[in-house]
């Protein structure tokens, strides 16, 4: 079902209004016969005001600032202070409104009366605490339902999206066989493109892929890029790792894509690219090194791919990774290190 946050908030707001209006009317009519209309109305309004102070002071201030953060002692002290202020305030204001003798000569009342003042608001505080727990429960339940709905919609869109690419794969395969006899190089390009697209559809949505599969995808991408660049760049790829290791998909792609997007100098043709991928102490280390492109367009945007990669690594590994780039007068070097599973 669709999620409508604004309608939910509006309904909750009207529910609050209805509850407080009911409490106000009950308080008013319970005192009407003894105190008359004017005093009953004033007393009911003052009582509701102090009750609201307790309820909202607890659920919107004390509970989220202290209880949710497991700061129980500050929460207890804050709750006591709130009860004292609200309890004594309500008690003395009620005496002033309903007792003409007290109104004529206000004074401190005895200890037992103070205790009754505090007890009269303690129940309200307990109810507010229970209400806040219920709010937390239903909020969590609502979020879970929203996530489940979004996930079902995503899975549905994914299933729909997979139909067209697989149809396209079959079409590419048909074109490949037609081109193979007449233009083998074109057929090879089609085959590489088909393999890359199949990786996007079948592998990139998984949580982990085999390192061998990820490297095969990189090899296809590099081969495709080399074929369109003249003269072809020289790629030196050193690798030393266990092929059966698994990593999240597309983590290595950003470095290589950045080289072909920003680091290829088509004017000078000096495009030697060094790639190094190896395993050390249960960490995968990937380094790329290429000549600085002296003829790059200064208007071209840089750094977005690396920024997105860093955000993704933070989600996956927290602070347990290293991503940095350096450059000198000749080379641009990118380094990535993250844990292996």
Automatic annotation (TrEMBL):
One of the Pfam families matching this protein, by short name: His_kinase
Ranges that cross the membrane: 12-34, 40-63, 75-97, 117-140
Superkingdom of this protein's organism: Bacteria
Keywords, ordered alphabetically: Membrane, Transmembrane, Transmembrane helix
Residue intervals of the Signal transduction histidine kinase internal region domain: 155-230
A single cellular component GO annotation: membrane
InterPro entries for the chain: Bact_2-comp_sensor_kinase, HATPase_C_sf, Sig_transdc_His_kin_internal
GO MF term set: phosphorelay sensor kinase activity
Record bears the keyword Transcription regulation: no
Name the UniProt record assigns to this protein: Signal transduction histidine kinase internal region domain-containing protein
Species assigned in the record: Chryseolinea soli
Lineage: Bacteria, Pseudomonadati, Bacteroidota, Cytophagia, Cytophagales
